[in-house]
Amino acid sequence: MDKGKRIAWLDIAKGIGIILVVAGHIQENEYINFFIYSFHMPLFFILSGYLYKNKEKFIKAKAKSILIPYLSIAIISFLYWCFFERYFREQDVNPIDAFFNIWLAIPSINYVFNTALWFLPCLFTTETMFHLMETKIKNKKILLSILIILSIIGYIYAKFNIIRLPWGLDTAFIAIGFYSFGYWFKRKESIIIQKININLIKKVLIIFACLIITIILPQIAGKMNIGNLVYPIYPVIYITSFAGFFMIYILSNIIKENKILQYLGTNTIIIMGIHEPIKRIALELIIRIFNISLEVIRTNLVGIMLITLIVLVICIPAIYIINNYLPFLIGKKKEKKNVAH
Fold first, then answer.
1. Which residues pair with 230 in a beta bridge?
2. Cβ(189)–Cβ(271) below 8 Å
């Protein structure tokens, strides 16, 4: 996020979102999977679009805030996997192929060292595409038409799925629709707030209605996993995503004083980058210590919640170290402490 005052509800929303990301990578429960994947990654594209500002050196700034963390975490994850973890995991992936995929950024088996990293280059591609179009195309109707056409192209391309495109370009065709919605929502937020500025009971009912949509509709229309180009019936992609966003938006405004979620929300890029290797270590330790099968842990709601909590707790020391001693890894400068004279 740009420098300045942080938006409390948005940090809460990102905090909830990153919990769902971690849980989504832990679970192997069909019902939980359908629910989480129906909106959790679109949520991050929407929130990124909400923060969009057309400013000078936009692409350079995004390269610093997105690509530097991506490359830093990807290289560290690759080295850990290449020289240690791959000797304990049964996966037939050539280290050379995995290394080159850092630069190709194609969501595939070659992201074996850290599958969650696909999101960052895809976000950069999406933001760059939107910025170029928003800057060059002044007619809003033409811009909207192009965005719709791109999303349809992305949907059709996913159905054929001949070859995955580098830098998440194939996913970006769909994701730019989410990003554009966030951009639009920011500009209409005051009007929307007036319409939903109702009592708590009605807000809870709206949250419940959105929850039902994100639970039931994917079961009817099909699973969604935008990173793997798995989509339900076309309109459902955006219906569940927008329902999930409004659910999180209203909930985040209700509980916007929650410091834990705010903390997680301000450090999503670190958690996004490091939770996957930590998850694998945590699962292996739990299995060995308590002699519980992996299937039981990953399909049971209690087990999923427990491992999610463990992973997030383990992330906290890493967040502290990176923010205070290694901020360059995420494209930031070390803050200078004021010294009294």
1. 225
2. no
| pLDDT tens string 147-198 | 999 999 999 999 987 799 999 999 999 999 999 999 999 998 888 777 767 7
Tokens 């967040």 identify what position?
319
Give the rounded distance of the alpha carbon of 264 from its chain centre: 13
Cα–Cα dist 72/274, whole Å: 11
Q: Which of 122, 117, 222, 239 is nearest to 175 (CA)?
A: 122
105-127: average pLDDT: 94
- CB-side neighbour CA atoms (13 Å) of 272: 25
Taking the CA atoms of residue 267, residue 270, residue 273 and residue 274 in that order, the dihedral angle to the nearest 10 degrees is -110
The Cβ-side half-sphere exposure at 220, using a 13 Å CA radius, reads 11
Gap between the Cα atoms of 291 and 124, Å rounded: 42
Q: Are 98 and 81 in contact (CB under 8 A)?
A: yes
Distance CA 82, CA 94 (A): 9
- Nearest CA to 275 out of 287, 286, 264, 261 is that of 264
pLDDT band for 332, please (50, 70, 90 cuts): confident
Answer whether 13's CB lies under 8 Å from 49's CB.
Answer: no
Q: What does each C-alpha distance from 302 to 23, 299, 309 come to in angstroms?
A: 11, 9, 11
Q: What is the CA radius of gyration of the chain?
A: 20
Beta bridge partners of 225: 230
Neighbour count for residue 68 (Cβ, 10 Å):
16
What are residue 9's phi and psi, to 5 degrees? -60, -35
Residue 208 CA to residue 66 CA, distance in Å, equals 34
What are the beta bridge partners of residue 14?
none
Which residue ranges make up each domain of the chain? Answer: 8-330
Nearest CA-CA partner of 166 in 98, 104, 213: 104
Alpha helices (H) in the chain, listed in sequence order: 8-26, 30-37, 40-50, 58-62, 68-83, 95-104, 119-136, 140-160, 169-196, 200-221, 234-254, 259-266, 268-290, 294-299, 301-325
